[in-house]
């Protein structure tokens, strides 16, 4: 039973990832067109806000390209040297995206501050037209991505890029209106700083979540103490210790523990009950449980049982 659940989980994860790759490819095409349009518009109108938006779009294109590559690598079959394949390449891709966002935000801030007091004359009309077109494209890309599997850190990373781009396009449009109506050219630099702030906010989860996965922290919504108590409450279980819960890759939690059971009990049945509870209540399907039988003299008889996907079966 445990193996049947595990393979279903693996195949379902593969199907969701395939759908995410298709959405990311569509978003890549939209962002590539927007990038060319925004760079040209920024140069022609002398708008830093448009060039900042183009910088964000460039990070989007890079983010999606990294994400697609990472997703392809994550689908590679396991090998004796890499028993989980290359699944964590998705996590590394998300981390690279977060670092890229921070670098771009810093560059925008430096350039924006240099423009205060000596802002060049900005073409508000052209800035408004390009900003409006960019907003439409960003909304379309965000809508495509938002319908995917949000547990995928790569898709979530690209989605946050795209959503921040939509907000930055709104900033460009508002700044253009101020330039047109009251002639305030510094509005372009102010909009650039707002865009940089949005980029930094979007980078936080992209930095935190991959680091948590790489450090093998428990998933953020997981109460490890509650899981241990639930395991210990199962029939025939006396005690649970050396409990570890971590994430192999986005959407793929794993658990290992030593489980002390009563003397003479059916260890296989106790194993199945614990595995089924972990699956039904907590969605954990990859487990490594060492079943330890309490001996009459107070010693322990150790028997290891593995549940869920074996390393060679992981996808």
Note poorly predicted spans. 1-11, 301-315
- How many helices does DSSP assign? 8
Order of helices and strands: HHHHHHHEEHEE
Number of beta-strand segments? 4
What's the overall average pLDDT, rounded? 81
Q: Helicity, in percent? A: 55-70%
**Intertermini distance:** 18 Å
The backbone outline, from C-alpha atoms, is: elongated
Q: Report the portion of residues in β strands.
A: 5-15%
What spatial order of strands do you see in the largest sheet?
1-2-3-4
What is the alpha-carbon Rg in Å?
Answer: 25 Å
Structural class by helix and strand composition: alpha+beta
Please explain how this structure is put together.
It is a single chain. 65% of the residues lie in helices and 13% in strands. The N terminus and C terminus are likely disordered. A four-stranded mixed β-sheet has the order 1-2-3-4. It is built from eight helices and four strands. The chain has 315 residues and is of the alpha+beta class.
Q: What keyword list fits this structure?
A:
315 residues; alpha+beta; four-stranded mixed beta sheet; 8 helices; elongated; disordered N terminus
Question: What topology does this entry show?
Answer:
Blueprint: H1 2-45, H2 48-74, H3 89-115, H4 124-146, H5 153-182, H6 187-214, H7 224-232, E1 237-249, E2 252-261, H8 267-282, E3 286-294, E4 300-307
Parallel strand pairs: 2-3
Antiparallel strand pairs: 1-2, 3-4
Helix pairs in contact: 1-2, 1-4, 2-3, 2-5, 2-6, 3-5, 3-6, 4-5, 5-6
């Amino acid at each position: 039973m445990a193996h049947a659940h595990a393979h279903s989980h693996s195949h379902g994860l593969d199907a969701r990832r395939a759908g995410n790759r298709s959405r990311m490819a569509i978003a890549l095409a939209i962002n590539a067109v927007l990038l060319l349009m925004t760079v040209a518009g920024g140069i022609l109108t002398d708008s830093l806000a448009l060039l900042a938006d183009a910088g964000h779009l460039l990070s989007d294109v890079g983010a999606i390209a990294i994400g697609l590559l990472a997703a392809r690598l994550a689908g590679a079959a396991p090998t004796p040297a890499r028993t989980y394949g290359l699944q964590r390449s998705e996590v590394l891709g998300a981390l690279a995206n977060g670092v890229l966002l921070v670098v771009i935000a810093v560059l925008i801030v430096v350039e924006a501050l240099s423009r205060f007091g000596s802002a060049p004359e900005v073409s508000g009309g052209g800035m408004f037209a390009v900003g409006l077109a960019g907003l439409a494209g960003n909304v379309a890309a965000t809508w495509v991505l938002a319908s995917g599997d949000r547990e995928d850190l790569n898709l979530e990373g690209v989605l946050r890029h795209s959503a921040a781009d939509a907000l930055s396009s709104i900033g460009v449009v508002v700044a253009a209106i101020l330039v047109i109506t009251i002639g305030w050219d510094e509005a372009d630099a102010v909009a650039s700083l707002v865009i940089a702030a949005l980029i930094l906010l979007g980078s936080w989860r992209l930095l935190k979540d991959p680091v948590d996965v790489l450090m093998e922290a428990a998933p953020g919504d997981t109460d490890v103490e509650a899981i241990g108590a639930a395991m210990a409450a199962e029939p025939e279980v006396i005690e649970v210790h050396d409990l570890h819960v971590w994430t192999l890759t986005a959407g793929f939690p794993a658990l290992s523990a030593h489980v002390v059971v009563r003397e003479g009990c059916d260890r296989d049945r106790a194993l199945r009950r614990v595995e089924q509870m972990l699956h039904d209540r907590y969605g954990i399907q990859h487990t490594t449980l060492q079943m330890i039988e309490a001996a009459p003299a107070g010693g322990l008889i150790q028997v290891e049982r593995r549940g869920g996907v074996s390393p060679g079966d992981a996808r």
